[in-house]
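Hey,

Quick one before I head out. I ran the complex with fe (ii) ion overnight. Inputs first:
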Amino acid sequence: MVGFEAQGAQSRDNPFATGNDEAFARWRDRKLAACARSAAGLVVEVRDPRSLTPAEKAEIVRRCRRDNMAIYASPVVAEDKEVPRRLGAQLGLATLDTNFLADEDGITSIAVSGAKAGAGFIPYTTHRIRWHTDGYYNPPALRIRAMLLHCVRDAASGGDTALLDHELAYLLLREDDPRHVHALMQDDALSIPARVDDEGVARPEAVGPVFSIEPGTGDLHMRYTARTRSVAWKDDAATAAAAARLLQILDGDSGLVLRTRLLPGMGLVCNNVLHERSAFEDAPGRARLLYRARYVERIAGTRNAWRESETAGM
Ligand SMILES: [Fe+2]
């Protein structure tokens, strides 16, 4: 039986711990050999996301273990929040993060809203949303580990999604210079001042690392935003260099950023990977509508995917 220590951040085979260079090198090779190189590699056709077949679910989880995300494509285009709710439940996602802009049930309708846009909340405008992980402004105790987006209607033009597995962001940064990931694992690397945030949530200051290792499981978590206003990076040269390099990776040509457009009936399930939305335009009478759900849990069956024994058969 594997003990708590051996499972977690302290384990010598954890590739995300800064001292474990051999474990990192082995994991890096496996990860780069296996990871999806196009968004098409993420796609699983499903008949109805509300009721997956065992085979459909297995294909989604397999991709989430490999890439921390999967895209499902279904013929279900109904304006029905049961789609994300039931899909999440089938993937072990039970604890929704709620904010006051979420509809009462904790699943947020992302669409252009005059009132929310007027208050400056970017998700409810047609503007680009820069690279981020969800809930980066949450207190450390309310960490968002999984996120789900379901497309009811796409935009007349634009509204594309760019995705990068946060483990690959870590990998590329550490390959470039181990000091980068060390800087971004500092407990005070990234501070979000107290304010009413993008989503309209009044909240206290949130100080924490960008990359952290989950106690107990050893999985990698990331909190990040590329926005520059209302964000305070730790004021030292190492953090500044790491943040600048990360932005170069996100906007660069690593070949690992996956670009796609969610069409009606399609959706993203992920362990809160890095994502970006391009600007879009709605046509009259046909407004883009996505449902978004954020969860405290990771997708079931994706724990410890970094372990060699777990990835050998991928
Ligand atoms: Fe997001």
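Residues 1-5 have pLDDT under 50 and may be disordered.

Talk tomorrow,
K.
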